[in-house]
UniProtKB/TrEMBL annotation:
It is found in: Membrane. The gene is LOC107823929. It comes from the Eukaryota. The lineage of its organism: Eukaryota, Viridiplantae, Streptophyta, Embryophyta, Tracheophyta. This is non-specific serine/threonine protein kinase. GO terms for molecular function: ATP binding; protein kinase activity; protein serine/threonine kinase activity. It is a single-pass type I membrane protein. It comes from Nicotiana tabacum.
Length: 288
């Protein structure tokens, strides 16, 4: 098999990352170019085959520029792995955590990443049938290509919303700090769970780190109004000019509306994507 030969049966020299579920390898195949192979640990594959199936079911047939492409998969007694496009710059989290890399991520690149994630989620919620809720939107699960375009990845706990079902989940899953508060007591999965996580992520991209306790303050319009813009911006970047500042304030307000406690009061991803796509964030090409 091409993958086994190319990775020399998953030799450590091809490994680019490890996690709780398994390891990720990268190789170059003549037919596909650079690819990433997510190989599940045998113990994980045996006990969490649902995660593997989820990812395949969610990604098969999906074609969107802001969602990582699944080329194929293998599941047998020896191996369980997924074959993806290789996304060059790795996770958004690792870039934001790096003092040098984060400075290359200027305001306009960050705005574009926020837009890309919103387009991906709008597509999953609005254009897929049945709709798909990702359930684990975080900076670790957004990859960046060579042009800093966002790719949403890791659909291991994604849920396909069935119209004839109540869509409850049996266990609370997701990444701490991004999980919608209602999931702790209703366990009902809706698109609004992703909307909440998107709000947290968008603010993190602008701040350069997770906002922690600021999230609660931003969710409430009365406390939000007393916050300083400088508290919400990444101090590693130059302070934005008036035009970019206007765009960032618009995004901060939109992201904050995703954090309200009542799920039905949050905007849909379709609405958010529309607002962001109609917003002009390009730099001025002339002086008045």
């Amino acid at each position: 098999m091409d993958i086994l030969n190319a990775t020399e049966e998953f030799d450590a020299t091809f490994c680019i990352g490890q996690g709780g579920q398994g390891s990720v390898y990268t190789v170059n195949l003549p037919s596909l170019g650079s690819i990433a192979v997510k190989r599940f640990h045998s113990l994980f594959a045996n006990t969490h085959c649902k995660s593997f199936t989820n990812e395949v079911n969610a990604l098969i047939g999906i074609k969107h520029r802001n969602i990582v492409k699944l080329f194929g998969f293998c599941s047998n007694a020896q191996h369980s792995f997924l074959v993806y496009e290789y996304v060059e710059r790795g996770s958004l989290f690792s870039i934001l955590s790096n003092e040098i890399e984060s400075k290359n991520l200027d305001w306009l690149k960050r705005v574009n990443i926020i837009k890309g994630v919103s387009f991906a989620l709008s597509y999953l919620h609005q254009d897929c049938s049945p709709p798909i809720v990702h359930r684990d939107i975080s900076s670790s699960n957004v990859l960046l290509d060579s042009e800093y375009e966002a790719r949403v990845s890791d659909f291991g706990i994604a849920k396909l919303l069935k119209p004839d079902s109540s869509n409850y989940c049996t266990t609370l899953a997701g990444t701490y700090g991004y999980v919608a508060p209602e999931l702790a007591y209703t366990m009902k999965v809706t698109e609004m769970c992703d909307v909440y996580s998107f709000g947290v992520l968008a603010l993190e991209i602008i701040k350069g780190s997770h906002l922690g306790e600021y999230i609660t303050l931003l969710a409430n319009s009365s406390t939000r109004d007393h916050m300083q813009l400088s508290d919400l911006l990444d101090g590693r970047l130059p302070y934005p000019d008036d035009r970019v500042k206007e765009v960032l304030v618009f995004i901060i307000n939109l992201a904050s509306s995703c954090l309200v406690e009542t799920p039905k009061s949050r905007p849909t991803m379709h609405f958010i994507a529309h607002k962001l796509s109609s917003m002009d964030s390009r730099p001025c090409t002339h002086h008045r």
